Description:
Layout: H1 2-8, H2 12-25, H3 34-50, H4 57-66, H5 73-81, H6 88-102, H7 118-121, E1 127-129, E2 136-141, E3 147-149
Antiparallel strand pairs: 1-2, 2-3
Helix pairs in contact: 2-3, 3-6
Amino acid sequence: MLRMKEVFAVSNRHIRFAATKVFFGTKMVEGSYVHSHGIKMLSLVEKLEDLKVGLDNDTYIDVILQSLPLFYDLFIINYNINRLEKSMYELINMLVQYEATTHKSAPAALVGEASTSKAKDKSVGCWKKKKGKGEVVATIATAAGAPTALMGIAKGKGKVGGSQ
């Protein structure tokens, strides 16, 4: 009976392997909040420390930074260039602040005047005139390639923006 327990018992080595696999393989889901991802990564770090894996703070930070999506590339470059020495908790706080200041928004596009002439109306996806009230809608291609209508439609003057 003792032999059966030894055969079917889960070894500490296997638990350690599984925990490190999850930690090194975790990636933040695009569009989710970095705070919840940071909490998940910190809980995995605590589990690894309980298992006495023996990784240092720099390795933990490297793995956390590698788990982030492309949106955080500028933050990562800045962090590495400035050779910041932070704890994991400070790193997560910095990431939350970075996310809050950038709002995960697409870059703004500058829009100039629109003409209501037929030559401009026929151009490829630049300016389109709506029938009726003389509103002009500017469309741009987003990063995903789909056209997006811009806000700030001026009525009757042929301009896009807040002035009328």
